[in-house]
Amino acid sequence: MSATKRENKGCLSALLNLFSKRNEDHTTNLASEETGINESLPFRLRDDFLSTAEHSFFQVLRSMMGIYFIICPKVSLSDVFFIINPDKNMSAYNRINHKHVDFLICDSQTMRPRFAIELDDKSHDRLDRVERDAFVDELFETAQLPLVHIPVRSTYNTNELGALFRTVLSGTQKPENVNPLSEQVTNPSSDNTLSTATMVNKPIVGSKGSVTGSYSSQISEVKSGSENHTPVCPKCGQPMVLRTAGEGPNKGNRFWGCVNFPKYKVIMKIE
């Protein structure tokens, strides 16, 4: 075959391919116009944001939390916990990435997390889930945020749940030591709505047992420091910066603040 004929055949093949591609694009565009779907963004709204069991338990929680607490379902662990020195601890971040907790219970005024709930169905009996749950339990305990495991049931006793949640909020007993479905509750209250009134002035125990403030405040105050020595933030592990209060009763006073404020609201008074 001559070079001219091969050239012509190559040109014809290219034209046919171009025509075929345009025809496919035209067909796809027509289909998209008819259905109203943008094929370049293949995303759809799920019909099962909450499973049937999760939705049922959510309604139970709604009846108990009243105006005092906000229920946040399916919260990513990476939105609840931070990693100290993230550049050096990327593997730690990878362990919590793509993991979530079923329900996070937050104070309605400050949105500070108060405790979390895992709704355990039969899938939690699998070996991989048992290992995952053990890690998550250790994570919550390390961060000193209570985590309660509730077995899935067709019905729930709100008296028993209320007693459990009050116990967790008061910090008098670890949640894993209470069985919310078999524990006998003496003199149960007729009103199972939870309240923060008795918890407002209780101290929050921070890292390594230090007192870091109260439930009514989002500022964590650590022990006093010296202006001549740069302290390290106990939360993020970064050197703190010297700041001056611009308003309020401490206006004009200097203090150490976290470099990542307001993400980490840690301050240290200067003696």
Tell me the span between the first and last alpha carbons.
95 Å
Quaternary structure type: single chain
Q: Tell me the major beta sheet.
A: 4 strands, mixed
Strand content: 15-25%
Number of strands: 10
Class inferred from helices and paired strands: alpha+beta
SSE run: HHEHHEEHEHEEEEEE
* Poorly predicted residue ranges: 177-190, 196-218
Q: How would you sum up the global shape?
A: extended
Instruction: Provide the gyration radius in Å.
Output: 28 Å
Q: What's the number of helices?
A: 6
The whole-number mean of residue pLDDT values reads: 76
Could you walk me through the main structural features you see in this protein, from its secondary elements to its overall organization?
The chain is 32% helix and 20% strand. With 271 residues, the protein is of the alpha+beta class. Among the domains are: 52-177; 219-270, no CATH class. The strands form three sheets. A four-stranded mixed β-sheet has the order 1-2-3-4. A four-stranded mixed β-sheet has the order 7-10-9-8, with no helix packed on it. It has a two-stranded antiparallel ribbon with strand order 5-6. It is extended. Residues 177-190 and 196-218 have low confidence and may be disordered.
